[in-house]
Amino acid sequence: MAGEKNDDGLVLLGFWVSPFAQRCRIALAEKGLPYRYVEEDLFGGKSDLLLRSNPVHKKIPVLLHDGKPVNESLLILQYLDDAFPETPSLLPADPHARAHARFWADYIDKKVTDCGSRLWKLKGEPHRQARAEMIEILKTLEAELGEKEFFGGEHGFGFVDAAFAPSTAWFQLTYERYGEFSVAEVAPKLAAWAARCGERESVAQSIYSPEKVYDFIGELRKKLGIE
Questions:
Q1: What pLDDT shows up at residue 4?
Q2: Which of 18, 39, 84, 183 is at a distance of 20 to 30 A from 26, taking alpha carbons?
Q3: How buried is residue 140: exposed, middle or buried, by Cβ count under 10 Å (0-12/13-18/19+)?
Q4: Beta strands across the sheet bearing 36-39
Q5: DSSP helix/strand/coil, 12
Q6: Total-model pTM
Q7: What is the CATH number of the domain that holds 77?
Q8: Rounded CA Rg of the chain
Q9: 168-215 per-position pLDDT tens digit
Q10: Which domain holds residue 148?
């Protein structure tokens, strides 16, 4: 995985399969910022560093900048723009466009992960509802993407793309199999966008394959007694 450099100026605490940690890695790569990555054992016991750095939520990701913690992935992405203005900006310069990007990143956070977890956790009618909801979410995101190459439009690959790209490793196989649908069929433009994202070095080196995500969810289902 990219970014595992010994640089104490920036340290990222994460978990390998977390899309929230991965979006931070993508952002750091897009900006060309060296950092040290610290893998957290979320199942075997969280480190003292994580608990000290995020005492409220006690979760990853956490970005340490000269020892000072920044929590919550979308806030980390915005912080990187603010703290390193000389690097390529994830957010556009126009205030309205910035607010628009933040809206869609927030939509992704509130909708995709929650609905996706219900796809592989639930059965019966709740599962059918989650499936219908996920298809609607994907269609909504495809409508926002429209004919653009990336969600950033003229700005190019940006804030929403970095926020959403890690989810492609989840919906390309895990969500499709448990939801019994094809992203390429229900949202072909979104599937094409996912392929374009996967061709970017920042994305390719920051996320794992859909197969590894699917295997992880399979093991997690066993641990939770779902299987």
A1: 46
A2: 183
A3: middle
A4: 36-39, 10-14, 62-65, 68-71
A5: strand
A6: 0.94
A7: 3.40.30.10
A8: 17
A9: 999 989 999 999 999 999 999 999 999 999 999 999 999 999 999 999
A10: 95-223
Q: What is the mean pLDDT of residues 52-67?
A: 97
Helices in 146-209 by DSSP H: which ranges? Answer: 159-164, 168-171, 174-179, 183-186, 188-198, 201-204
Residue 221 region, left (φ>0) first, then alpha (ψ -120 to 50), else beta? alpha
Beta strand ranges found along 78-159 (DSSP E): none
User: What domain count does the chain have?
Assistant: 2
pLDDT digits (tens, 9 = 90+) for 136-167: 999 999 999 999 999 999 999 999 999 999 99
CB 150 within 8 A of CB 196: yes
Peptide bond into 95 cis (omega under 30): no
Residue 89 falls within a domain, yes or no? no
